[in-house]
Amino acid sequence: MNVAAAHPTTVPAARRGPNAGFGRLEAIGVIRHLSPRESLVFEGDAADCFHRVLRGTIATYKATADGRRQIIAFFYPGDLVGFTAGERFAYGAEAIDRSSVCSVPRAKLGVLGDEEPALREGLLSALRREVEAAQERQLWLGRKTARERLACFLLECAGRTGQAGPDGGLSVPLPMSQLEVADYLGLAPETVSRTLAQLARTGAIEVVPPFAGVVVRDRHAIEAAAGESAPLPGGSA
Amino acid sequence: MNVAAAHPTTVPAARRGPNAGFGRLEAIGVIRHLSPRESLVFEGDAADCFHRVLRGTIATYKATADGRRQIIAFFYPGDLVGFTAGERFAYGAEAIDRSSVCSVPRAKLGVLGDEEPALREGLLSALRREVEAAQERQLWLGRKTARERLACFLLECAGRTGQAGPDGGLSVPLPMSQLEVADYLGLAPETVSRTLAQLARTGAIEVVPPFAGVVVRDRHAIEAAAGESAPLPGGSA
DNA sequence: CGACTGCTTGAGTCTGCTCAATAAAGGTGG
DNA sequence: CCACCTTTATTGAGCAGACTCAAGCAGTCG
Question: CA-CA distance, A207 to A54, in Å (whole number)?
């Protein structure tokens, strides 16, 4: 089977619960199409617009003066980029693959969506998920090995865009390059390649040839390699 | 001079702008006193309360099954711990030093502080600052060296609790131990000690003997060592 | 005054990075 | 349609920053 075909290239209508209530945004905003590598926002820009991903994948990132780059998050169709920003964007954003977004001026939402409680709810949810994701990644980047980070990343992607395959495998499309995975996980690209190869050698995953995605063959092995966090000392209720 | 005396041990009334409007919380909540190392919340707890720090310092953290720990953030008097959580806390929180908090049940705020726009504003601000801080730390942890992380950390602390000294130095109290700094910066405690010693050797900082804080002697040197992020390719407007 | 906790310092190791060369895939234009 | 060129991934060798293990020291608290 072709993993690339499993990409969710369009917005799954109302799939992401917390974003409900944003459906009418398309009516207000402007559609914009982006090629791979094309910038959507620059760090420091006035944050007068936010962007709903309609198709493709967007990455937000921060960079140091000497060119090192850290990808903060990946955004898929249905996600909101820059919704959580303050006055100015604290990060840049660019397209990973061929993407479309709907850009909505903040002003059009009233000061803070005062009228629309569902929208306010949605904003809070988006913010909360973004906080929790960023904090989780602090653990990844601060305390996990390359192998663990990769495993965590694959599980995250599996949870977002994974599709159960007919042969029992979990097919996970990966629209980003290995360089971008490296910039997300705080690793060198060579380390990503090597670690992926190592996971593949054990049979836990299978890499789809032109690095279009992976198939998770042994989910337990990946979960074990991810070195899960320890939520409850006594086990879950 | 005694750096420890510069600790902001009580809430600076209305010092933190975005938290304005929380003043009356103390009337609703319950005061709780914590000893060093005492837990305030556990990862996985139902998030039915949030906590305003009145005195001391609180750290939030995540841990792996094998005991590695990543400190997510430090909270000083005036800050709100757990305000941004969802249903359950995704992290634990414990006191760094002798601390007091005011614990406020979420239920007492209405569903989301619907009545009080200032409070809603405050919640959004708190969330936004937490997002931006967590994302900034992704850059630190993913792409910066031990030396850079330490320098960034010192600048962050200086911005929060630093006091200009009479001799031109910037006095920065550090209530946390080096182990806790290490857990915050994703380093080993030995590395923190060594790197701090190295910065002191160059004259950029001076460590106050019982590790109660540092005095920044050469701010430019620390800023240079921090390897600032690159916001604008062309310089700021 | 003694035990403990936290910091310092040293020696050796290792994970992951750098540099480099090769290979494969995809896009472009003739 | 094919040849070329660019981009991305793979693989190897060597290096180094940060970790681990370990011993010693100082300040604190009981």
Answer: 27
